[in-house]
Each structure stands twice: as structure tokens, then as C-alpha cells.
Amino acid sequence: MSRSYKVAVVGATGAVGRQMVACLEERKFxxxxxxxxxxxxxxxxxxxxxxxxxxxxxLNQDSFAGVxxxxxxxxxxxxxEYAPIAAAAGAVVVDNSSAWRMDPEIPLVVxxxxxxxxxxxxxxxxxxxPNCSTIQMVVALQPLHAAARIKRVVVSTxxxxxxxxxxxxxELSDQVRALYNSQEVKKxxxxxxxxxxxxxxxxxxxxxxYTKEEMKMVLExxxxxxDESIRVTATTxxxxxxxxxxxxxxLETKKKLTPDEARKILSxxxxxxxxxxxxxxxxxxxxxxxxxDLTLVGRIREDFSIKNGLNLWVVADNLRKGAATNAVQIAxxxxxxxxx
Length: 340
Ligand code: A2P
Fold this sequence. Notes:
Elements: E1 5-10, H1 15-26, E2 31-38, E3 46-49, E4 52-55, E5 57-58, E6 69-72, H2 76-88, E7 92-95, E8 126-128, H3 132-148, E9 150-159, H4 166-180, H5 212-225, E10 231-238, E11 245-253, H6 259-267, E12 272-274, H7 286-289, E13 295-302, E14 309-316, H8 320-338
Parallel strand pairs: 1-2, 1-6, 2-5, 6-7, 7-8, 9-10, 12-13
Antiparallel strand pairs: 3-4, 9-11, 11-14, 13-14
The protein binds adenosine-2'-5'-diphosphate.
The site of adenosine-2'-5'-diphosphate has 17 residues, from helix 1 and helix 4.
């Protein structure tokens, strides 16, 4: 008989953590006991799970006794400190922060792309969940890479504020409300107003002129796809959208792929839905991608400025496939293949 598991969610009150709890319930993950963890600010709060209100506990060194799977989404410094504590207590950690992603001993996994890497968790007890923008891009790239070998990717992103966390969702709605009522606009989360604006600035700037988010897309893509020869360059932009990231992706492949061939390959690819009927104004949009788990791909067309070039428009829910769903999918493979 299949068994059920004691599962902790670290950051259970946050934008991604709440989605993790919802995904566990929606996908009927076999949870024997749910342990929602957050900071002292959340004392007295609870999370709804399977029709019950479960009190949030304050994260501490002893939080992981008996926990078998710990989903983390409380920021990099919490992951750096507590993921090894959870692993030492016997849990397998699926970590949504960037703390462990590029550690060569820790697998970085998108189930549609490199599920075989999950087994590497045995070394450190931690599996890293990639960056939201990277996840949706590699879901679309992998089947095309298998067919035609991708040489180079140029990507520009249009990223929703929920990727920054609940406080950024609140900031955008507060700013829109203030503008509408001719009141003073306050900014706390972003250095500039995000309402009716675009910020070409996600995460911190690096010495090479790129942001950390842009470099995550470069390095994580190569690690997940297991191919350091794929050249990637990215411009990541925050836009005043609440949920779902969009990406304009330009590809150069070794072998020629026509748009029709790419459409055919993508329509059979796991986790992908092709939405590509421009004559009927059908293309992926954040409003359609939000609240579901597929990566939508459309505007598939030839880049006629080079020999073997393709353009795609890729949209997915950043809190779901870009974070919570991907983490729960990893946990599903873990219990099916490893923690029986
Ligand atoms: P809390 O709500 O108690 O602050 P978001 O990404 O939406 O901002 O959410 C961040 C999540 O990480 C929240 O659940 C938040 O809990 C949690 N968190 C932040 N700092 C800590 C901390 N020091 N200890 C435990 N959880 C934390």
C-alpha cells in the first residue's frame, strides 16, 4: 500500500509558500501531516489545507523532527541556514531559493527536462528548484534542443511582480489605487514606481553589467539542460503584471527547424501547450497562463535574420510552474522513485 509523508513548508505564509500548500492539496500529494513554518511575524496565523486550518509554527532548529520532505521558499539566507539542518534531521529538501542552485553537488531540476538528476539528492539531501524564468524557458527549449541542438538563446523577459513576493503584489495594487485617487505614490519594494512602468532591473546588478536574474537564466539553463555549450544572453524586466511571466525567446539551432516542425514538436512536449493562431488573435498571455500549470508557447516564427533561427513567445504562471508546482512535481518523483 502506498504511504503518506510528513511535509514541512518553510515560508508557508508567502506568495510561493501558499501556492505550495495549495499544490500539495490540488495534486493530492499523500500528506500525513503538514507543518507550515514561517517567521515570528506569523504567530497566530494559520494555513488552510484539506478543509482544516493548520496553525503556522515559527521556524527553528527543531522544526524538522520527523519531517520527510521540506519545501523551502523563505528566501536565500533562510535556505542557506536551515536546509542543511532539515537535511541533517532526515528530510529531503526541495529549495526554491537561489542559495544552492549552482552548487555542483546539488541537483537543479525541472521534471520535464532532467528528472534523472533527482537521484543526486542523496549526497546532500537537497534538491534545488530553478529560477521561475528559467523553468518555463527550458520546458520549451528542451524538446527543440533534442530535435535540432540549440546553439544560442537570446531572451527578454516580462516578469510579474508576484515573483518578488506578496509585498510587491501589494505595492503594485497600492500604487494603482493611489494614482487613481490622485494620492501620493509610495515605493518600498522597487527603486522606482512599478505601476504603469517597466524596470529593466531584477535582483542585484553584477560587475559584468548584467543583473543576477539575467545570469541565473544563463547558468541555470546550462546546468538543467546538461550542456554548457548552449550560449544564453538575457535581459530581464519587471512589468506591472500580477501573475505569470512572459518571455520573447530567440533561438539559433544547429539543424534547421521550420516553424511548423517546431509547432509539431512542442505540441507533443510534456508540460507545454501551443497557443499559436495569430489569425484569431490567439497567443499566450499572462491572464490565460495564471492559475494553471502548463507553459504556453506561441508566436512561433522564423528568425529570417540568421540561417537557423526561430522566435517564440513563452508564458507561464511564475508562482505555479515557475515555483510551487515544479517543487511539488519533484516531490512526486521523489516519493515514487526514492522514498517509497
Ligand atoms: P512571514 O510571513 O512570517 O514573514 P514572500 O516571498 O511572499 O515575501 O514570503 C516570504 C516567506 O518567507 C513568508 O512566509 C515569510 O514568513 C517567510 N520568512 C521570511 N523571513 C523568515 C524567517 N526569518 N524565518 C522564517 N520564515 C521567514
